[in-house]
Amino acid sequence: MTAPLHEARPAGPGRALPDTQQGMRRRNLARVLHTVGAEGPLSRAQVASRIGLTRAAVSTLVDELIRSGLVEELGPERPGRVGRPGSALAVSGRGPAGVGAEVGVDHLAACVVDLRGEVRARAVRHGTNRGRPPEPVAEELTGLIRQVVAKAEQLGLWPAGLAVAVPGLIARDGRTVVRAPNLDWHDTDLGALLPAGLPLTVDNEANLGALAELWLGDDTPRDFLHVSAEIGIGAAVVVDGRLLRGTRGFAGELGHVPVEPEGPRCPCGGRGCLEQYAGEEAVLRAAGLEPGEDRVGLLAARAAEGDEKVRRALHDAGTALGVALTGAVNLLDPEAVVLGGALAALAPWLLPSLRAELARRTAGPACPVSVSRLGPEGPLLGAAHAVVRAVLDDPAAVAERG
């Protein structure tokens, strides 16, 4: 059986394995697979040179990965090289793949990503989930998951696991939604409502968005604070390439940091939370706009057209974000802050006031703020890639499962 995905959350290769001969073999299989995936196509000799093993040892490992369907030979290397040409190796575009899914306040989504990191199938349903019981939401999500898995199977892929992004507090069991205020879910065992038979993890959407940024972003540092937004605002802290989860796994609830102690009441039960000033619905109210299907697109279009009321609403939202982020930056000293989710599309109008607040309030030099190129796709991609990383980190488990 493949190890449960919540045990494979640390980024990159080197998942803790026993310090035995068998453990060494598993670690070396992961090293070879990660190297071919990151730098391939490569010959056996090139892989051996990069990871410091003998060519004979690498050949044995490569043969095992080929038998498991994780690596494929593309044929002889390009002509013109000195010596006998080796066979070029690449991660297979068939075989195990990661299934990612997302429960949003106003949408559901699912996708399949192969071991090369390519999205091979995707499905989305738009419509509100706020206040809906978990059971019908999970039933619709299951339909989307089955739809993308069926498409992937036609392409020669099979699901190695399922990871689901949810905007709420997730227990360390990797399946229970303890609280999702914007969905009005409490103590929901989502794992019991989703397809059986697959290794499963449920995680906070901001956490998976941060992992996507770490794995897929452009020159993302290994220490950063990732902020994302839909209806609510979430954050994730990455330290030395790993998520900082907290004792109960609830770290990163930036949206419920108070910026005005006696401000408006929040669905979480508090007052003056950041979401009441910088969440999508709060910005729409301040801008005098009615909620619609493409709220962020509407705000961005009106701001680009010069609508002063919209620009003022976004300016004030950026100020509130800057106030909330100041505490996190002063406490954690991250190398950077990365804006993702809906915030990425609104960055041109949020960033000036956000950066001004950070510069004015932080104890040290102002923390750099960048914008994710993944935007609202981050949590869904992070979910699918979390499954892919679990395979790359322990490819021997694939052979054992088979």
UniProtKB/TrEMBL annotation:
MF (Gene Ontology): DNA-binding transcription factor activity
Name this protein carries in UniProt: Xylose repressor
Pfam families: MarR_2, ROK
Organism ancestry: Bacteria, Bacillati, Actinomycetota, Actinomycetes, Kitasatosporales
InterPro entries registered for this protein in UniProt: ATPase_NBD, HTH_MarR-typ, ROK, WH-like_DNA-bd_sf, WH_DNA-bd_sf
Domain (HTH marR-type): residue spans on this chain: 30-81
Family to which the UniProt record says this protein belongs: Belongs to the ROK (NagC/XylR) family.
Stretches the record annotates as Disordered: 1-23
